Amino acid sequence: MATMHPKDKQPLKIFVIMLMAMTSLLASCSGKTAPHRRADIMEGAPNFRDLGGYPSANGKQTVWRKIFRSQTLAQLSDSDTAKIKELGIRTVIDFRGDDEVLKEPSRLPGGVNVIRLPIEAGSLNDSVDIMLLMMTGALDSARCAGFMQTANRKFVTAFAPQYRAFFNILLQPESYPVVFHCTAGKDRTGFAAAMLLSALDVDWDTVMNDYLLTNQYLKPLPLVPQIPKQALPALRLMGGVQPPYLNAAKDEITKRYGSIDCYLRKELNVGDTEKKQLRKCLLK
Length: 284
Hints:
Blueprint: H1 10-22, E1 49-50, E2 67-70, H2 78-87, E3 91-94, H3 98-103, E4 113-116, H4 124-136, H5 141-157, H6 160-170, E5 178-181, H7 188-199, H8 204-212, H9 214-217, H10 232-238, H11 243-257, H12 260-266, H13 272-282
Parallel strand pairs: 2-5, 3-4, 3-5
Antiparallel strand pairs: 1-2
């Protein structure tokens, strides 16, 4: 990525604050509890959830308590950090950018290996443009959806190296149990989860259902008083997830590579051998 001059970072920092504020506008819901709790595991990270129990095309299912997706881990309570120890978490993969990490450093017990794979999907100009449109109330639903779709298409191409490294970590049995996350745990994390489940031969409807669970589990954070009322409709839309967002990534993959399987093989170095290893680690 290009080096950014310190004086140019302030607008991006403001945008990051607004991005985190989006999560405050989602309704909360209680999680399902049988046979294992998919979510409602961490008090300070409601969108921390287990990827176990999803059926694979080969008749097996993803294992419980081995790989988790999450929002920021900066708000974990003492009981949450104890839960991290109880779960035996060895590796945390953090997709957040530098400004996000500086503002909200993770709160984790000792002994956890934190690996950063920064993904900053918007350029400075894009971020400033979106911020200004939000603040004036000029960002309508169509433009919001367009921004989110563009971000998801960038995951496919511009950030393939980060997702390739993500899979490299998951191919190492000693990495597990693993948590991967970003700020809200919905976009960067959502694409990662979609590619992982696809590599495990989980069907797209199930992949999408997992993606949309963010709208159920992500609970409100304190409102940011500086956000004007005219920005709220855009924040509500961008603070959640919608099928067109993730489908934009899938469409980009299909257009460029023909299929997710081909994308995994050609761009993320996840071929037959790697899939076999992933299945060994994450299916039963």
